[in-house]
Design brief:
Blueprint lengths: L9 H9 L1 H10 L30 E2 L6 E2 L7 E5 H6 L5 H5 L5 E5 L5 E5 L17 E5 L2 E2 L1 E2 L2 E2 L7 E8 L3 H4 L6 E7 L8 E11 L4 E14 L2 E12 L4 E2 L3 E3 L6 E3 L9 E3 L10 E13 L5 E14 L3 E2 L7 E2 L6 E17 L2 E19 L1 H11 L18 E18 L6 E21 L15 E25 L3 E21 L29 E21 L2 E12 L15 E14 L4 E13 L2 E5 L5 E5 L2 E14 L4 E14 L34 E13 L2 E12 L8 H7 L5 E11 L4 E8 L9 E3 L4 H4 L14 E3 L5 E9 L1
Parallel strand pairs: 6-11, 15-22, 17-18
Antiparallel strand pairs: 1-2, 3-10, 4-5, 6-7, 8-9, 10-11, 12-13, 12-43, 13-14, 14-19, 16-17, 19-20, 20-23, 21-42, 23-24, 24-25, 25-26, 26-27, 27-28, 28-29, 29-30, 30-31, 31-32, 32-35, 33-34, 35-36, 36-37, 37-38, 38-39, 39-40, 40-43, 41-42
């Protein structure tokens, strides 16, 4: 978005205040709350129009807990600044992650992404009882990654996205074993009034119309305080068709269809068929206040919230057709969250003191079709013969899920930093975080006999009612010393941590359905009901403590060229296996040895940064779906990732800007994965037929991922026009670590996508953008999965209608054509 520049004067202040009602109305009309921007922290690689020379702008980051020039930070960081985010038409997680070469991911819809960095990926299903994420996503100061995925924050009025590759254990702790992604919002600015809004519409191939409305106003209250209000409303059209289909269950002979027919005793009609049914509505906002108490101290409270209602499925079934499924039961998520945060900044002598507190509450209500599980187990094992009503008559065994997840997360961090220009510099602090996850999942079968239903929960074959608590405490610090002033710097860092993770509650069948079960009602360890569930059938916890280290040596060869070498460590806490026969899984650790460079050339017209590294991943946690669909987490020996990451930004001329980035990885096992552990939970590496032998490529991450973009701007009198092209390449990926599961699911093919855009910027503060995303309508394979164990639901040659099993493909959005109008005040 072109930003109109105002020169403060008394007349200008009066004019800007006269526009306040309009700007406020815009924000309130689209449901305001808010963001903000600290002008000194804006990051951009866009040449300034008034420079009339080809030159890159200075990029500032706060990755090392202090404000620094990106080119002076000896860490592999990629930054998407506010201008780049707008130029690339970034609206959500899927939009910005494709321009981050070090990041791979699996997605199951908005807000349900599993993120991996630098090839540190074993796969897994993101189950609520599974491992904590290995990549931390931060909103300003607080980690906002939950078990099922990070917040999918609407990307409007964002200062920058910082991606820190490699272990960030010393400064960021357990949630950043493989790296961290930081979303930095704009902050209130007391120096001047500002406002803008943006209105857009779009159409997607195989779908309908979408729209976006966004607005922001920054209001100085006094010379030392300001408030910033932001609001947005977005509708994304669906592109997956839920086509009419019929499926007959062998045991009962009941046929189920999503057609709108009339049900009979042997035909169940749900009427769920609908074209482009996976639409999304997102509404949210932010309110931020900044008050400078004096020249040294300030407080910044913020409140942000968002609701996303997503219908349908964000994957397709190739057996049904391109961008098509045939599902008979309701599929919908209602994901809503709010975050309250407070940052206090000040000085004690020459030292900077920062206290950051945040409280996050997230609630998700989910409805999922789970009838594949019922069909395939009935077809292969006759499980439908055990599903009947109160009269003993076999019924439709189709399962569907109603899930409720309630998260609360609190974090406190207090840190101190010595002056940045001292020869000896220190950043140190204490951190505390606690996340509570209340889990409720009902696996429903309509008309199920009372004797087969969980007591107190009609039609519920299986009930999960659990409480999970993950707590982390740490002391951390990094100390840097200029061995040779302005030339050679040594840094040492460390973090001492303690974690305490617990999982307890009820999960399983009723005693009437499975009287010999070791869990569920038959496995109660306490007769007292648990939060409405029949009883408590497990209650486990694990405590761990340890330390992480970092050593770095940086050589500033010249003021514009720097090289560094780093050894750093990261970890992910261990946790609980619900299945009684399995021990707790242990923490896994990542050790990184890295050499990197940060350089600028040709009078700051070009920057070329990069790094080469080797990472050893020890006893890594691996999640699978075991018997009865229970998630099992086991430590899986060792892996090694060798890689190279590089980024080039070039102001070729005043008019032409070129950006490129790429990442090359060789990620493989360095010991056999046998699939089981010894009695102490240690992975077994010696076996006759390993599920994944030494040398097996790790899943999810391609050997190469890269992007290239070019933007050409030109003057139109006092105004500006531009054209832009951006291309992303993602290489071939493996779907699973285990060879058998991999053969059933199949690899994920390489793909290329191209986005084009053009626009006009008026000197009066308004702009018009036309863009086409995924110009050639390429069908990316972001993930593959089956609804139950791959040997069952992805079995080949068992069901004629599904010769290759029933495997879903998570894909990108088809070709999208959009138009956006924006205006600054």
């Amino acid at each position: 978005m072109y930003r109109h520049r105002n020169t403060p004067d008394s007349g200008g202040v009066r004019r800007r205040l006269s526009r306040l009602p309009l700007a406020a109305a815009i924000c309130l009309a689209i449901t305001a709350p808010a963001f903000g921007q600290d002008a000194s922290a804006q990051s951009s690689t866009k040449p300034q129009r008034d420079q009339k020379v080809a030159q890159l702008s200075t990029v500032t980051v706060t990755a090392e807990k202090r404000t620094e020039n990106l080119q002076k930070v000896p860490v592999s960081i990629q930054v998407l600044g506010s201008d780049r985010l707008e130029e690339l038409h970034v609206k959500n997680f899927d939009d910005y992650v494709k321009y981050l070469p070090s990041v791979s991911y699996q997605s199951y819809g908005p807000g349900f992404a599993l993120i991996y960095m630098r090839g540190v990926a074993s796969g897994g299903d993101g189950n609520h009882s599974g491992s904590l994420p290995s990549v931390g996503v931060y909103l300003d100061e607080e980690p906002v990654t939950t078990i099922q995925g990070p917040l999918d924050i609407h990307m409007y009025d964002i200062a920058r996205v910082e991606t820190l590759s490699g272990p960030q254990g010393t400064l960021y702790g357990a949630s950043a074993e493989a790296g961290a992604i930081r979303i930095i919002t704009n902050k209130p600015d007391p120096s001047s009034y500002a406002a803008n809004y943006s209105l857009g519409t779009s159409t997607v191939k195989n779908g309908g119309l979408g729209y976006t409305a966004e607005g922001m106003v920054n209001i100085p209250i006094s010379t030392k305080s300001a408030v910033r209000l932001v609001g947005w409303r977005e509708h994304d059209s669906g592109y997956i068709d839920n086509k009419v289909g019929y499926r007959t269950f062998p045991s009962s002979g009941v046929t189920v269809t999503d057609d709108a027919c009339t049900s009979t005793s042997t035909l169940v009609c749900t009427g769920r068929a609908k074209n482009h049914y996976n639409d999304v509505d997102t509404t949210g906002g932010r309110a931020a206040l900044k008050v400078d108490l004096d020249d040294n101290w300030s407080i910044s409270p913020t409140l942000m919230g968002q609701q996303s209602i997503a219908n349908g499925l964000f994957a397709y079934d190739p057996q049904v057709g391109d961008l098509a499924v045939s599902h008979a039961y309701k599929e919908r998520t209602n994901d809503r969250w709010w975050q309250g945060a407070l940052t206090v900044e000040g000085k004690i002598g020459n030292f900077d003191l920062t206290y950051a507190y945040a409280h996050l509450k997230r609630t998700t209500d989910e409805y999922n079709d789970y009838s594949d599980y019922s069909f395939w187990y009935d077809t292969l094992y006759g499980s439908g013969a055990y599903i009947y009503d109160n009269n003993g008559t076999l019924i439709n065994p189709s399962q569907h899920i109603i899930g409720k997840d309630r998260y609360t997360k609190q974090s406190h961090e207090l840190r101190i930093a010595s002056p940045a220009d001292d020869r000896l510099r220190l950043v140190a602090g204490v951190f505390w975080e606690r996340q509570v996850h209340d889990i409720e999942q009902r696996y429903m079968i309509d008309g199920l006999a009372d004797s087969l239903s969980t007591p107190g929960w009609p039609d519920t074959l299986w009930l999960t009612k659990q409480t999970r608590v993950d707590q982390d405490e740490a002391i951390f610090g990094e100390l840097s010393y200029d061995l040779v002033p302005d030339t050679l710097t040594a840094t040492i860092g460390g973090r001492y941590f303690r974690t305490h993770n617990t999982l307890g509650g009820y999960y399983g069948f009723s005693a009437g359905y499975s009287p010999s079960s070791s869990y569920g009602e038959a496995g109660c360890i306490s007769p007292t009901p648990y939060h409405g569930a029949p009883c408590l059938d497990f209650d486990k916890g694990v405590k761990e403590s340890g330390s992480l280290g970092k050593v770095n040596l940086t050589w500033n060869i010249t003021p514009t060229k720097m090289v560094y070498i780093t050894r750093s460590e990261g970890f992910r806490p261990g946790g609980i296996n619900r299945r009684a026969s399995l021990p707790p899984y242990q923490a896994d650790y990542l050790t990184n040895l890295e050499a990197g460079w940060k350089t600028t050339w040709f009078n700051n017209r070009m920057s070329w940064n990069g790094s080469v590294f080797r990472e050893n991943w020890n006893n890594f946690q691996f999640s699978i779906l075991g018997a009865n669909g229970l998630t099992e987490i086991k430590n899986a020996n060792q892996a090694r990732i060798d890689g190279l990451e590089t980024e080039l930004n070039w102001a070729a001329t005043y008019n032409l800007q070129i950006n490129a980035g790429g990442a090359f990885y060789i990620a493989k096992l360095t010991a056999n994965y046998c699939g089981y552990t010894d009695a102490s939970g240690n992975p077994v590496t010696s076996c006759a037929d390993p599920q994944a032998p030494k040398g097996t490529q790790l899943p999810i991450t391609p050997r190469f991922k890269g992007n290239l973009s070019a933007r050409y701007s030109f003057d139109l009198g006092e105004n500006e026009g531009y054209v832009q092209a951006a291309m992303v390449h993602v290489g071939r990926r493996k779907s699973d670590l285990r060879l058998e599961a991999r053969s059933l699911l199949g690899d994920m093919a390489a793909y290329n996508t191209v986005d084009l855009s053009a626009g006009y910027r008026s000197s009066k503060g308004w702009s018009l953008d036309f863009y086409v995303n995924n110009v050639f309508d390429k069908r990316a394979q972001i993930g593959k999965y089956s609804e139950c164990d791959e040997s069952v639901c992805a079995a080949h040659g068992v069901v004629p209608a599904y010769p290759n099993g029933q495997v879903y493909v998570v894909t990108n959005m088809p070709r999208l054509i959009g138009l956006r109008f924006s205006q600054d005040f």
